[in-house]
């Protein structure tokens, strides 16, 4: 328990490796303070709601095309305005407050079925409703004025973001695509360092650090570009950015294949001058430099002189020719080095396509057509389809919506019975803290409570020595900008400055300079309610969810290899579209499993299982995929009957073993023993059968790669067994299973 407490304390104080969002902070401060100052100076009714509308709507602007930004901000403004009116009306009739809160807050919390943007809009609408409920209107006209004031403040935030502080439509997409090449450059540099004699475990570290991160960057760029191109008829920059995104994805796949092949190389075959890995390291560094050039070309979007990179597989081929002439390489080593040279040459070809496209980025579309696989357009399915899909208690979104609705209603009831000062601070705390998962909720509760205590103490100190209202407003503008700027770094820091800002504003408006302790107490009450609702209302621990996520990743690995195996049976290359789709599915499934694992580590748990087997399963899920990526880069396989028979038997055994492994992880049972893969492909066995011997004679490199794939599966199998042994007997089915062949 002490170790868990220390882990949570570190998580509370952990800073994200990003820069503060200074521009977003200044924009939010302007969106908040301009309506506040104008409303106060002109004695406008609903000045508070002007500020609330401006501040909340500014949060919704996450970049992208003007169309997408306008739609998100306008829908949020409308939802918040309606919430302010309904909350004001319900507050006038206490008998309606409880049922209205249950229905309205639950409904808006369920908006997460439509994605992250809708979830943010729903949270703002629910928050506006509970504030309005805590500050009931004097009449129906007053409630309507509150809604109009929210619309006015939101309109100011939209003008500020879309007109006075404009962003070029394609700039977010260009920056997102440039980030892909930047990540590719980092990976190429890491490979260059590792191939020159880094520690043996450096390969695994590199995969863990880079593969998931690059896939996330690629998916962000894909989403950003799709949103930017939506509704646009032009076929210039958007098409070229699509070509560049595809090139970055292809370079990423090429680097994965290179890394897997490089790791299989043995120690240096001779002195440093004859070491082929030196030529590979230099080529990878030059590849990284080319990717950095692409970052600059894509971000600046100007006509520039095309860089002329001087790297490919020729230097490695020359080194290999020299070593071969001196008899210093075996047949298998020659095949591996030749394959690495081929992969480097293909990487150079992809880089050339990207450079040509980036240099013509701002001009009209000419030359090569865009790739055949377009980005998926937004689905035009019925708006009710996501709702129907989540109308079950198995849905995390529905469970979260019910938790939030009932817990917020309990907070409203407490505020109506005990009538604490600024009681809506309790309900806002509940809405802010509660997340769909237990771990993030617990972490956010700690950050919210600690941040409120620190911010409240700072508010007491500031109020005791600063009495000038003009100086106070200047200070509060700075603290409001700071609180929004620091959100990407650490939510606790945001809470510190948000508490300082809103407590001092409330004290200035009411003349009551003792609200800081009230804020702290109300936050403690809200935090306690949020944790109680999370733990006692339809809680599903991450320990229950993680096996399903991991099983999905393992099945995605199985599907990846199945695409390759079916292509071998047809004696042709894998279908490009099927290969691309299964790689994306695998990448996303693995990211989901790793995210679930991180949530598992952040959960307060009274019963823990060993972490090492879980980490090994996640790590070698990626290692298995890396070998499949290397196999997918092959142009052909031998088509003799004996080789085809060996491949067919291997594929059937691999498919059955991966499916059994995924099922065993999902249902906490012991996986079946693995078949003898070495015998199937004739690897390191005294008397291989005819098919295995034919594979070793005709395709030693393919035989080596399949043996490597079998080794990754063996590690996964061992880790799954160790995980089972670490579970309580009541959870795991530890009965031994019979040996089943492929």
UniProtKB/TrEMBL annotation:
It is found in: Cell membrane. It is a multi-pass membrane protein. Keywords: Cell membrane, Membrane, Transmembrane, Transmembrane helix. InterPro entries: Memb_transporter_dom, YccS_N. The chain crosses the membrane at residues 28-52, 72-90, 96-117, 148-167, 449-467, 473-506, 518-538. Residues 411-532 form the Integral membrane bound transporter domain. The keyword tRNA processing does not apply. Its main location: membrane. GO terms for cellular component: plasma membrane. Pfam families: FUSC-like, FUSC_2. Belongs to the YccS/YhfK family. This is FUSC family protein. It comes from Corallococcus carmarthensis.
């Amino acid at each position: 328990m002490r170790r868990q407490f220390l882990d949570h304390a570190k998580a509370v104080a952990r800073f994200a490796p990003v820069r503060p969002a200074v521009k977003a902070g200044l924009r939010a401060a302007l969106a908040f303070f301009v309506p506040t100052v104008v409303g106060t100076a002109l004695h406008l009714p609903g000045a508070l709601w002007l500020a609330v509308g401006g501040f909340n709507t500014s949060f919704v602007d996450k970049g992208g095309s003007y169309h997408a930004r306008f739609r998100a901000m306008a829908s949020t403004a409308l939802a918040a305005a309606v919430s302010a009116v309904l909350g004001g009306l319900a507050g006038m009739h206490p008998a309606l407050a409880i049922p209205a809160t249950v229905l309205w807050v639950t409904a808006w919390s369920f908006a997460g079925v439509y994605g992250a943007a809708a979830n943010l809009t729903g949270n703002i609408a629910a928050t506006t409703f509970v504030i309005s409920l805590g500050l009931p209107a004097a009449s129906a006209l007053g409630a309507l004025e509150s809604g109009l004031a929210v619309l006015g403040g939101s309109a100011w935030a939209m003008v500020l973001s879309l007109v006075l502080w404009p962003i070029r439509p394609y700039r977010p997409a260009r920056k997102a695509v440039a980030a892909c090449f930047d990540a590719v450059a980092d990976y190429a540099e890491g490979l260059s360092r590792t191939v020159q004699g880094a520690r043996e475990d450096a390969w695994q570290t590199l995969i863990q650090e880079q593969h998931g991160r690059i896939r996330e960057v690629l998916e962000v760029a894909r989403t950003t570009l799709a949103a930017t191109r939506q509704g646009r008829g032009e076929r210039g920059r958007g098409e070229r950015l699509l070509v560049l995104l595809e090139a970055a994805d292809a370079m990423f796949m090429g680097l994965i294949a290179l890394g897997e092949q490089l790791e299989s190389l043995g120690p240096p075959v001779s002195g440093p001058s004859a070491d082929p890995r030196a030529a590979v390291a230099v080529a990878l560094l030059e590849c990284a430099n080319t990717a950095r050039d692409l970052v600059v070309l894509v971000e600046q979007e100007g006509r520039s002189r095309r860089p002329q990179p001087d790297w490919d597989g020729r230097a490695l081929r020359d080194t290999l020719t020299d070593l071969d002439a001196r008899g210093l390489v075996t047949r298998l080593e020659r095949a591996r080095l030749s394959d690495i040279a081929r992969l480097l040459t293909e990487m150079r070809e992809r880089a050339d396509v990207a450079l040509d496209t980036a240099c013509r980025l701002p001009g009209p579309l000419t030359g090569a057509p865009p790739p055949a696989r377009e980005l998926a357009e937004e689905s035009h399915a019925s708006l009710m389809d996501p709702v129907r899909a989540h109308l079950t208690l198995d849905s995390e979104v529905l469970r979260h919506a019910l938790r939030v609705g009932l817990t917020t209603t309990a907070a409203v009831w407490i505020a109506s019975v005990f009538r604490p000062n600024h009681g809506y601070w309790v309900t806002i705390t509940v809405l802010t803290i509660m997340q769909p998962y237990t771990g993030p909720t617990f972490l956010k509760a700690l950050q919210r409570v600690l941040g409120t205590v620190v911010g409240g103490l700072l508010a007491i100190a500031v109020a005791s020595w600063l009495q000038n209202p003009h100086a106070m407003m200047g200070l509060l503008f700075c603290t409001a900008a700071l609180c929004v700027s620091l959100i990407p770094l650490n939510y606790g820091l945001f809470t510190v400055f948000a508490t300082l800002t809103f407590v001092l504003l409330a004290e200035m408006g009411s003349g009551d300079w003792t609200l800081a302790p009230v804020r702290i107490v109300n936050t403690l009450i809200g935090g306690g309610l949020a944790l109680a609702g999370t733990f006692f209302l339809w809680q599903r621990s991450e320990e229950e969810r993680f096996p399903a996520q991991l099983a999905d990743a393992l099945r995605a690995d199985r599907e990846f290899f199945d695409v390759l195996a079916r292509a071998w049976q047809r004696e042709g290359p894998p279908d490009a579209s099927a290969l691309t789709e299964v790689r994306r599915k695998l990448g996303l499934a693995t990211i989901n499993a790793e995210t679930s694992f991180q949530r598992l580590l952040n959960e307060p748990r009274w019963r823990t299982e060993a972490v090492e087997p879980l980490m090994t399963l996640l790590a070698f899920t990626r290692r298995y995929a890396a070998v499949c990526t290397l196999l997918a880069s092959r142009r052909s396989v031998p088509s003799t009957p004996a080789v085809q028979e060996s491949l067919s038997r291997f594929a059937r055994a691999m498919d059955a073993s991966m499916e059994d492994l995924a099922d065993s992880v999902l249902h906490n049972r012991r996986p079946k023993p693995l078949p003898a893969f070495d015998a199937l492909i004739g690897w390191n066995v005294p008397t291989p059968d005819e098919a295995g011997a034919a594979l070793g004679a005709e395709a030693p490199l393919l035989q080596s790669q399949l043996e490597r794939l079998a080794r990754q599966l063996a590690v996964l199998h061992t880790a799954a067994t160790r995980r089972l042994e670490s579970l309580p007997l009541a959870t795991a089915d530890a009965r031994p299973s019979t040996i089943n062949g492929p």
